[in-house]
Model the fold of this input.
Amino acid sequence: MKYYLTLSFLILSSFVGCAANPRIDNLSSADRARVSQVQIFKGQPAQPFQILGQVDGLSCNRNKYEAQDVSESEALEGVKIKTVLLGGNAAINTLCQKNSDTDWINNCWASVKCIGDAVKLK
Done:
């Protein structure tokens, strides 16, 4: 029984705090250039597009004793990076939410999460 409890704890702890923006040191020079060109739309653009998938970004304060330094722009950077990794050049239908209370899912004392759809504008 003790073995199963320990195993369950290890599996659960591997999921807690795993949500974060992708590491930028894994991006190629071309990818970094494309990230700076990604357009963010709160709704849908007038031009045709192809949806590639859902993307999200997170700004998270994991230290209870530091200032609540979270921002929508940091969360949107995650959206942009994930959009490029899917081969897109824009994110549409983006929505951001600030959580001023503890976000147990992402292991954050405060957070801003943005979500949207990665698209390829035609």
User: Anything to note?
Assistant: The two ends are 57 Å apart (CA to CA). The chain has one domain: 19-121.
